[in-house]
Write a structure and sequence with these properties.
alpha+beta, 13 strands
Length: about 425
């Protein structure tokens, strides 16, 4: 029986759902009364089914693969697939995937939602031109350059890959988080945002100098992808040390069973040789895993942690401000001697906030030598207090106010940190 032309669906007695039995059917005969006799492979006697239990349907669509088209089943590309037939049964659409084996052609059926025909991202003229240009550049490299082997084996570019999107000029797409992210490894607010961006954007780039927590961000990404239960993750790098760093940290923290180091034949052999030991480690890990806490409790703790991290980020910003102003004050003191400062200790403005002092310096600079009218003097008195004896055109006065600004600003910022610490 040609599986490309017909699908034999039989309803399961227990669930009532129809199952594709075409692979097991040797032949079938439809009776005039609607019943169907089916002879299964390896059986001689036919099974008789009522019309309510059998559906004979013809594929509604046939797609031949090859020439830049492949099939992806449950997120995995079947490189040896040759054709996909889609048909509609009582329980929805199904796709039958035909593929080559050493014994000939075989086929398997999956719900159509799990099967996708994908087209080579390099098939368009624009993308093909870009790839051809890159190959011309790589061809000029030395024969032992690893890039040559990569480009020689690059015969298909997935349209959803970063490379495919770059060549096609596809914009970055966003999606919603399916479930709240988890953070089993150390993270701050910036790392949280990086993880959420990576989980919701089609392409995400995380960069930063050494020591900023990129490895912890990778570990949290790995945890979220694995926890989803619907995807796997590959970690690649130009150097082995970066990949080994991730693996070693996972092993140190007790999660070594989730990673496989598969860089060459020796590593693959080593991985499978340790399979028995790894299974034992996994069993012990599962037995020691505590019960999952209620979701609302997790959400409450996560919300509190996010608020604390936001506060810590603000504190870090204040500490940076203090350091910056302290550095400016050092430079100021290096170039200005104490005897160059005007004696204004009784001036009310010096006891005002640093912002008030800065406002006065800015306004004095803008007003220059313009005559101060009555309205302006009243406004200044209300804002700055008495300015009697103050001459903003004198360098010594300006320097004294600048020094007061630095002192006040550093004290104000330090008080903010103290209030956070005691609250």
């Amino acid at each position: 029986m040609d599986a490309r032309l017909v699908a034999v669906l039989v309803a399961d007695r227990a669930t009532g759902r129809f199952v594709d039995k075409t692979r097991d059917v040797l032949r079938y005969v439809q009776q005039v009364d609607g019943r169907v006799e089916i002879v299964f492979t390896g059986r001689s006697e036919p099974y008789k089914y009522g019309p309510e239990r059998v559906r004979i349907v013809a594929p509604a669509e046939r797609v031949h693969l090859g020439e830049g088209r492949l099939v992806e089943v449950d997120g995995v590309i079947w490189e040896k697939a040759t054709e996909v037939c889609t048909f509609y049964g009582p329980d929805g659409a199904w796709s039958r995937v035909f593929y080559a084996t050493g014994q000939g052609e075989a086929h398997r059926s999956r719900p159509a939602a799990q099967v996708r025909i994908i087209t080579d991202a390099a098939s368009s003229s624009r993308a093909a031109g870009i790839l051809s240009y890159w190959r011309d550049i790589v061809s000029a490299l030395g024969a032992d350059d690893p890039l040559r082997q990569v480009y020689d084996s690059l015969n298909f570019v997935h349209p959803d890959s970063a490379l495919g999107r770059f060549m096609a000029g596809t914009p970055i797409e966003s999606s919603e988080l399916g479930t709240p992210p988890i953070y089993p490894f150390r993270c701050n607010l910036s790392q949280r945002q990086a993880v959420e961006n990576a989980l919701t954007q089609s392409i995400s780039v995380i960069e930063g100098p050494p020591g900023t927590g990129k490895t912890e961000t990778i570990l949290n990404l790995v945890a979220n992808i694995i926890a989803s239960g619907s995807a796997t993750v590959g970690i690649v790098s130009f150097g082995n040390s970066a990949v080994d760093n991730v693996r070693e940290k996972l092993e140190t923290l007790g999660f070594g069973h989730v990673v496989a180091r598969l860089g060459n034949k020796e590593l693959v052999t080593e991985f499978f040789d340790r399979q028995h030991r790894r299974n034992a480690e996994l069993k012990e890990f599962v037995n020691q895993t505590p019960l999952e806490p209620p979701f609302d409790k997790l959400a409450e703790v996560d919300s509190r942690l996010r608020r604390l991290q936001a506060a810590e980020r603000e504190r870090a910003g204040v500490r940076q401000e203090i350091e910056a102003y302290a550095l400016e004050l050092q430079h100021f003191e290096r170039h200005v001697a104490p005897d160059e400062l005007a004696q204004l200790d009784r001036l009310p403005l010096l006891r005002r906030s640093s912002d008030r002092i800065l406002d006065y310096l800015a306004e004095s600079e803008l007003e220059g030598a313009r005559r101060r009218g009555l309205v302006r003097r009243i406004r200044e008195y209300l804002k700055y207090g008495s300015l009697r004896g103050l001459d903003p055109s004198e360098t010594a006065t300006v320097l004294r106010l600048q020094r007061a600004f630095y002192d006040r600003r550093i004290v104000e910022l330090s008080l903010r940190l103290t209030e956070w610490t005691t609250s």
